[in-house]
Write a structure and sequence with these properties.
Oligomer: single chain
Number of helices: 16
Order of helices and strands: HHHHHHEEEEHHHEEHHEEEEHHHEHHE
Strand content: 5-15%
Number of strands: 12
Length: 439
Amino acid sequence: MKPPRTSRLARSAIAGVAVARVGAAHLGQRLNRRDATTLEAAAQARSVHEAKLGRILFGALNQLKGTALKAAQLLSMELGLLPEAMRHELARAHYQVTPLNRALVIKLMRQELGAGPEELFAHFEPQAFAAASLGQVHAASSRSGASLAVKLQYPGMAASIGSDLALLRTLLQTLGRGPALPQPSVMDALMRDIAAKLAEELDYLHEAEQLNWFADALQGQAELALPRPVASLSSRRILTMQRLPGLHLNEWLASQPSQTERDRYGQLLFDLFLHSVFVLQRLQADPHPGNCLFMPDGRLGLLDFGCTRALSAGFCEHLGAAWCTLLRRPFAPSALQQAFAALGLLSPEMDADTFGAELLPALQALLDWQVRPFTQAVFDFGQHPPPPRTGAAHQRTAASHLHSMAPELPYFDRSYLGLLQTLRTLGARVRTTNPWIHP
C-alpha cells in the first residue's frame, strides 16, 4: 500500500467533497420528506437518508485512512450516540486495509531501530499476517529462536491526528443538520478524548508499558496468557513482542469445539471483564475478536493493549449502582436518575417527570438489553439478541437530554459491547452472578 495522503491540503479536499455531498443529500431529503404521506414512510425516508450520510462519511474517512478511520471505528461502537443507520455504515471501518509493501517496511525499521529486518532477526516474514487501520503485524524469530510478532505503524499517522479530528468534527457538524446528534459540547468532549487516546495508541512504547502492566496484574490467573514486549527491538513506531501460539475466534470455531470448551472460554472472558472493571479498574478498551487467541494448551491469549483506559472508583461505583437499579424490583426511576446524574449524563436540574416520561422510555430498550445477562444465574449468550434499534424519535430525545459524558463511559461501552458480541459468537453459557452487578 502507498502511505495515506498526509498533506493538509489533500486531506481537506477529501473532506470538502464529502461536505458538498452531504449538502446535496440534505436537499434531497427535504424534497423526499415533502412526498412522504405517512409516519412510516417518513421514518423509512429518514433511515435511508441517515444510511446515505453514513456512506458519505465512511467514504471520506476510508480515503483519509489512518487516525480518521480509527475514529470511525470508535464512533461506530457507541450505541445510542449516533443514528443506527449511520453507525452501521461506519462499522465498515473495522475491515482490514491493504498492508505496507516490503520497501516501506525496511525503511521504517531502519528509521526506528537503525537496521533492517535481516540484521535484527534470525527470520522476518515480509508479508504481514494482520493489518488494521493504524499498523500491521509480521511474524519473526529472534537469534535465540523465540517466536516473535512485530507490529509496525503506518507512516504519517501521528502527524495527522489533529487535522483528521478537525476534519471529522466538520463532517459531523455538517451531518448534524439532518439526523439527531448529541449537543456540540458533548461531541467536542468525545472528539478531544479520541484525539488523546489516538496519540497514546500511536506510541508503541506506551503500549509496551500497558502490556507489561496487565501481564503483571493478571499473572496469578494461570488460564490467561499475555505476550511480553522485547524492549531492545521496540520503539515509538515498532513494537516487538512474544508471539503466542493459537487460533483466532473464527478459526477456533471452525475446529468444532465442544459446548463445554465454549462455556469455559466464555467464562474466562466474562470474569476477566468484571475483574478489569471492578478490581483492576482498568480496561483493555479496543474490543475485537481478533484480540483473543485460543491456545493449544487451553489458555486464553490476550493481545493488543494499545488502547487502555483507567477507570475512577467513582465511575465504577455509579455504574454499578445504575445497573443494580435496573435489575431491582420494584424498579425505582429516581435511583436510576441519580446514578445517571452522578455519571454526568444528565443535568442535575432535570426534573423527575421529564426523566420518567421522556428520557427513560427512549433509553429503556437499550438499558434492558445491556443488563439482560444479569437477569439469570447462568446466561446463554448464544440466545442474546443483537442491540435494539433506536427509533428516530427516541434518538432525538436521548441526544437532546445528554448533558455530558463521563470520560470512561465510551471505553466501558465499547468494551462491554465487544464482550457481548464475542460471547454471542461463542454461543457460551456463562455464570453471571457476581459481587458487583446484582438485583
